Automatic annotation (TrEMBL):
Protein name: Olfactory receptor 56B2
Record's keyword terms, sorted: G-protein coupled receptor, Membrane, Olfaction, Receptor, Sensory transduction, Transducer, Transmembrane, Transmembrane helix
UniProt xrefs under PROSITE patterns: G_PROTEIN_RECEP_F1_2
PANTHER family documented for this protein: OLFACTORY RECEPTOR 56B1-RELATED, OLFACTORY RECEPTOR 56B2-RELATED
Residue ranges of every copy of the G-protein coupled receptors family 1 profile domain listed in the record: 47-297
């Protein structure tokens, strides 16, 4: 005769915090992962700061390509700092609780920095395309003004578009479950706890991924297709080799970045029985590129390598 008050109260209940459990299936010994993660984080910070100092001090590096590399270094440090301190707090101090606003803020920051990194890769690909395919027009096309406009556009695009992710996640109703089998607040991991329909969140995630990451990847592929076509037309093997060598470091980073993105998307979409794999890949994708990017560029780029040795006061003879 009377309505069930328990059901009514339950439907109005909203959790006040989420609990990040860490790496699924290995909670008993996941703290051992803290050491390599901490080392990768320290490498990411120190290497990227060194890159920024080197680019700032060496006038020979005051070129568009290195300006983009400097912006990439800032983005990488932001991405690593967004997630690693919280993961280490979970593994070292069992600080698994995170408030809803903090969780949604982290969700936004991750999407923003990852999209920004993708955008900078596009700018660097365009820079290499003009340098190799339109060398006579390089100084007139890739100017300081171009770098500023491209950076502002990327900041606005990648700062505004991902806002929909945390906004839609915050509109879900979290009435009972609050434990997330993850080290960070991923969109799908958080919204899977909601008591109402989260279809709009999943659709928005897919559309956003295709609109930003998909379009960026298409532009990068087109740029390098034109670069390869131009290089193949060169009669000199030495000239072709020199042209491609300037793109090697960029290509290595792009292949790693987008390959992991695609693998993560496939594993999430397939609903893998071993959730550790997508979670582990997700964490690595946000930690390894910030540490890997400056190392790869330092190893593969002669100008940057020589400038780094000069800043570190090392003997550059033979390098």
């Amino acid at each position: 005769m009377f309505p069930d008050l328990r059901d009514s109260n339950s439907s109005k209940f909203q959790v006040s915090e989420f609990i990040l459990l860490g790496f699924p299936g290995i909670h008993g010994w996941q703290h051992w992962l803290s050491l390599p993660l901490a080392l990768l984080y320290l490498l990411a910070l120190s290497a990227n700061i060194l890159i920024l100092i080197t680019i700032n001090q060496e006038t020979m590096l005051h070129q568009p390509m290195y300006h983009f590399l400097g912006i990439l270094a800032v983005v990488d440090m932001g991405l690593a700092t967004t997630i690693v301190p919280k993961i280490l707090a979970i593994l070292w101090f069992n600080a698994k609780a995170i408030s809803l606003p903090e969780c949604f803020a982290q969700m936004y920051a991750i999407h923003c920095f990852v999209a920004m990194e993708s955008g900078i890769f596009v700018c660097m690909a365009i820079d290499r395309y003009v340098a190799i395919c339109r060398p006579l027009h390089y100084t007139s096309m890739i100017t300081e003004s171009f770098v500023i406009k491209a950076t502002v556009f990327m900041v606005l695009r990648n700062g505004l578009c991902p806002i929909s992710v945390p906004v839609l996640a915050a509109q879900r109703h979290y009435c009972s479950r609050n434990q997330i089998e993850h080290c960070l607040c991923s969109n799908l991991g958080v919204t899977s706890l909601s008591c109402d329909d989260r279809k709009i969140n999943s659709v928005n995630q897919v559309l956003l991924a295709w609109a930003i990451m998909g379009s960026d990847l298409i532009l990068i592929i087109l740029s390098y297709a034109f670069i390869l076509y131009s290089v193949l037309k060169l009669n000199s093997v030495e000239a072709a080799s020199k042209a491609l060598s300037t793109c090697t470091s960029h290509l290595i980073l792009i292949l790693f970045f987008y390959t992991v993105v695609i693998v993560i998307s496939i594993t999430h979409g397939a609903g893998m029985r071993v959730p550790l794999i997508p979670v582990f890949l997700n964490v690595l994708h946000n930690v390894i590129p910030p540490a890997l990017n400056p190392v790869v560029y330092a190893l593969k780029n002669k100008e940057l390598r020589q400038s780094l040795f000069k800043v570190l006061r090392l003997d550059t003879k033979g390098y």
